């Protein structure tokens, strides 16, 4: 009785449940040809290297035998190797408090906050030197337009979980060892004997300084260029573009920083690649063609001289320079590629009530600019978020004011009505993804994924062999080895081999495993058969025992 393919497939799945039990004993079968070599090659590189064919007129026992063989081969289909790359998601948590200042007792200057109408600008930073730098005599005025400026600047020292980067030019594109640090500013006023924080009186900033300098002024401010790294809300980003036409500063997470040869590409995953198509010399200059592809199809392209900038769907590309080899046979591009690339739109809210601004050097002062010009874009020394929400009024002990959903400004009387201490605090967690060997800076901590020491499984698509009917298979069209279950009476392909004198199985044959070398379009064929159903089953069990 003929069985449909659908039925055979179902039996093959069920057979997997009994394969282990059937393969535990020692079964005997007569071997003809190099059966051991055939059995050793049924799986190659983790995938089945054979097809299994059962006769259209096969008895149910032959079908079960074919299913058992398929199940055994399926159990061998796995890949094993040494982990050379990988990634992990790490949660970094940190908390800290700055120094505090008692606004009712500590202030001894003439413009005290408890004198009606006066104010104090409180400052904390990733390193206390940066906060202190705003109260020394040579310090810049903290903004005049659209910003703070207070009667008194008061340093609250270090808030240790704010981030700092000690080399913002790691590729030495601009030959500088400048630093960058996060700084927070809050101007608190005394209005009719009530403390308040007005609109535009709180700022979070990421500011770049000349190496080993902490006082922000025209001498010490480091001006940003594409490729520089800056901290932003606790994580390290690379500057991709400073755009004066559309007023934005684009930043992204480094994915690659190095040299790519002309004609080669970098695989970002998720189907995206960045390709350096050509490097063409024109006089003393070079023009570079860079393309971003998705699943092999071009989605963005730029052809220009360095520094070249290209942004598409969260991918940022900066080409700093290009050159040719000595023989002018091919070129190279020095390139930075980023993911999670974001355009920080100046004058637009990044988080509710907090607008993006450029930290711009204005003479010796620091402004927070809503717009850029071709001149001021060359004076950008950082990125800021400034508060544009409603005033925080009637502030008193126990109040906490959020700064960009990142830092808190706190007032606390410590159960003493004669005190009112102001300070900054953080209790923050960040999730960061790292590739093996990658180092990132987050919440002022340097995190490196040195190794992955764990049992890990990767989903690999593998198709286990399922028996097909002899009417749906052919010796002439085979593209891999064949296992034929059943003798010439029940399996048409076995009959073909018998007629050609390549196998000899009749009603008297014992359990037999016979190899016909190259008989299936150049591929070997293993016949699993015997003189009756029981002998065929025994031959199948012997093969399973060998695998």
TrEMBL record:
Residue span(s) of domain S-layer protein central: 121-456
Q: Which residues form the signal peptide?
A: none
Q: Which organism is this protein's natural source?
A: Methanococcus maripaludis (Methanococcus deltae)
TM regions (residue ranges): none
Q: What is this protein called?
A: S-layer protein (TIGR01564 family)
Cross-referenced NCBIfam families? S_layer_MJ (TIGR01564)
User: One Pfam family, short name please?
Assistant: S_layer_N
Residues forming the S-layer protein outer domain are 34-547
């Amino acid at each position: 009785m003929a069985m449909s393919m659908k039925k055979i497939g179902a039996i093959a799945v069920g057979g997997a449940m009994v394969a282990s039990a059937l393969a535990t004993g020692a079964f005997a079968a007569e071997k003809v040809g190099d059966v051991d070599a055939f059995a050793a090659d049924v799986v190659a590189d983790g995938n089945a290297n054979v097809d299994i064919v059962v006769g259209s007129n096969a008895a149910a026992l032959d079908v079960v035998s074919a299913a058992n063989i398929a199940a055994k081969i399926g159990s061998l289909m796995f890949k094993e190797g040494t982990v050379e790359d990988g990634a992990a998601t790490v949660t970094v948590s940190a908390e800290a408090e700055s120094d505090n200042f008692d606004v009712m007792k500590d202030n001894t200057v003439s413009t005290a906050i408890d004198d009606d109408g006066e104010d104090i600008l409180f400052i904390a930073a990733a390193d206390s030197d940066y906060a202190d730098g705003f109260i020394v005599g040579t310090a810049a005025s903290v903004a005049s337009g659209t910003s703070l400026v207070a009667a008194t600047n008061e340093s609250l020292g270090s808030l240790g979980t704010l981030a700092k980067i000690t080399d913002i030019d790691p590729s030495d594109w601009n030959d500088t060892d400048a630093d960058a640090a996060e700084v927070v500013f809050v101007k608190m006023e005394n209005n009719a004997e009530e403390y308040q924080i007005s609109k535009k009186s709180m700022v979070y900033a990421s500011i770049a300084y000349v190496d080993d300098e902490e006082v922000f002024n025209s001498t010490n401010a480091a001006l940003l260029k594409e490729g520089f790294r800056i901290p932003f809300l606790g994580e390290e980003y690379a500057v991709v573009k400073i755009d004066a036409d559309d007023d934005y500063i684009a930043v992204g997470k480094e994915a690659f920083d190095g040299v790519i040869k002309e004609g080669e590409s970098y695989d970002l995953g998720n189907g995206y690649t960045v390709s350096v198509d050509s490097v063409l010399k024109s006089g003393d200059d070079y023009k570079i063609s860079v393309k971003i592809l998705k699943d092999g199809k071009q989605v963005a392209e730029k052809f220009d001289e360095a520094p070249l900038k290209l942004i598409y769907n969260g991918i940022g590309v900066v080409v700093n320079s290009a050159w040719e080899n000595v023989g002018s046979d091919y070129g190279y591009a020095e390139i930075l590629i980023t993911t999670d690339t974001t355009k920080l739109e100046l004058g637009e809210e990044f988080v509710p009530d907090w607008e993006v601004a450029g930290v711009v050097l204005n003479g010796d002062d620091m402004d927070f600019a809503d717009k850029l010009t071709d001149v001021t874009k060359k004076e950008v020394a950082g990125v800021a978020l400034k508060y544009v929400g409603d005033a925080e009024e009637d502030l008193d002990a126990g109040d906490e004011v959020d700064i960009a959903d990142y830092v808190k400004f706190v007032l606390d009387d410590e159960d003493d009505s004669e005190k009112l201490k102001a300070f900054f605090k953080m209790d923050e967690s960040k999730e960061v993804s790292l590739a093996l060997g990658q180092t990132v800076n987050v919440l002022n901590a340097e995190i490196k994924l040195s190794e992955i020491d764990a049992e890990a499984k990767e989903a690999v698509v593998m198709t286990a062999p399922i028996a097909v009917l002899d009417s749906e298979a052919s010796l002439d069209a085979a593209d891999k080895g064949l296992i034929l279950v059943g003798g010439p009476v029940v399996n048409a392909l076995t009959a073909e081999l018998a007629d050609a004198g390549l196998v000899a199985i009749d009603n008297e044959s014992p359990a037999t495993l016979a190899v016909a070398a190259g008989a299936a379009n150049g591929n070997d064929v293993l016949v699993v058969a015997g003189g009756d159903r029981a002998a065929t089953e025994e031959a199948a069990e012997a093969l399973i025992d060998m695998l």
